[in-house]
Structures are given as C-alpha cells and as structure tokens.
Amino acid sequence: MLRLAVFASGFGSNLEAIYQSIASGALHGVELALVISNNSVSGALAFAREKGIPGRHLSLVRSGNDAHKLESEMLEVLHDARIDIIALAGFMKKLPEALLDRYQERIINIHPALLPEFGGNGMYGLNVHNAVIASGRKISGATVHMVEGEYDSGKIILQESCPVFEKDTPKLLSERVKEIEHRLLPEAIQIMADKITKSR
Ligand code: GRF
Question: What confidence score (pLDDT) does residue 121 get?
C-alpha cells in the first residue's frame, strides 16, 4: 500500500473524489493517509475530520511567517505519516523546494484547463475559466501533471477536454470541468502509484 497525502486549500471536492475512488476500489494499492491544508476552515480539512483521516493545518502565518519553519514542519509531518506520494487537489501555495526534492516524481497536480495553455502564475480558480471564456476558445478541460517547481509545469499524465458553450459563465464552465477532474485525478494517482509499485 502506498500512503497518499492530499494537499488542498478549498472546498475539497477532488479530495472527496479520491476518497470515493478508494472506497469503491476503483483506486487501489493506495491509502489516503493525510490531508494538509493552508486554510484552517477549508472544506478539505472538515471532510478529513468527518472521515477520520488525519488532517493538518500548515501555513506560513501559522509558522510565524518563517518559510524555513514551514518547510521543516511540512517535511516532518509527511515523514511521520510515512507518505509515499502526494496529490495537489486545489492547493493554492507553492511547495517548498526541499519538499519537491524529497518527493521527486511523486507529486501530481490537477489543473482546470488544457495545459500548457491557461496555466502559470495567477491562473487558479475562476480566473482560469474567465480567461478561457475571454479567449473565445471552444474547448477546455482538465490536466493532471507531475509537479516540478514552476507553476503548472511538469510532464502531463492525463488530459481530457469538454466543450465551452456560447452562454457559459466561469462558474458553469468550472462545474463541467470539475466533473472531469473528479475522474481524472484518481486515475492519474493510480498511474503514478502503479509505476512506483512496479519499480520497487
Ligand atoms: C479545482 O478546480 C482544481 O483543478 C484547482 O482547484 C480546484 C479545487 O477544487 N487546482 P476542489 O477544492 O477540489 O473542489
């Protein structure tokens, strides 16, 4: 069993999708061992509490605005929970370098657009869907990719598209894309987990 940590800042619907995939057996060989959030009142931490999954609130403010302290706390929490792989499911903060080093090839992120377009700094939440609609694109979707330092860069693992309609609002488009995300993220976790298990 590989031990998975999910990092989430917000509502946590992708976290829930991962939880359900494991519960149904669709995602296997993976245990949801830890939820980390920079937001103490996130839906993700509430969901973790409800399901009895260990959850931790870790943030720069909580660490006294000391980035080194936050970095050590993150590494320690992950180490103590014996985490093998990490999924970023709407995590709004950049990960510390040391964490990226320690978990090379073991961190994935879900992005609500078809990367490499509509990614990078500032491209999060409804900003992404706003930008897609403003561009006049007729197709959007979701991407899961490996995390390698820069925002929304790294090898693409899975991508799926959906239409953008004339009358779409950012909210409507985000709902359509989220349906894809909820399938894609557990599938990508399975792909990464299988690869790691095979190489052991
Ligand atoms: C998702 O759209 C994800 O792609 C983005 O942040 C959002 C998180 O949604 N990175 P939720 O908290 O999982 O509902």
Answer: 86
Cα Rg of the chain (Å, integer): 16
- Beta strand pairing call for 107-111 and 85-88: parallel
What is the pLDDT, as a whole number, of residue 152? 76
Instruction: Please identify, by atom number, the ligand 1 atom nearest to the C-alpha of residue 88.
Output: 10
Give the closest residue (by CA) to ligand 1 atom 14.
13
Task: Tell how far CA 193 is from the center of its chain.
Answer: 15
Domain 2-199 annotated CATH 3.40.50.150: no
d(CA 69, CA 75): 10
| pLDDT value of position 153 | 81
Q: What pLDDT sits at residue 149?
A: 75
Q: Is residue 118 within 8 Å of 128, Cβ to Cβ?
A: yes
Q: Whole-angstrom Cα distance, residue 128 to residue 119?
A: 8
Nearest-angstrom CA–CA distance, 179 and 199: 32
List average pLDDT for each run of 10 residues in the chain, which is 200 residues long: 97 97 98 98 98 97 94 98 98 94 96 96 93 98 92 90 97 98 98 94
Ligand 1 neighbour 143 (Cβ under 6 A): no
Residue ranges covered by each domain of the chain:
2-199
Kindly give the distance from the C-alpha atom of residue 199 to the centroid of ligand 1, in angstroms, as a whole number: 30
What residue type is 129 in one-letter code? H
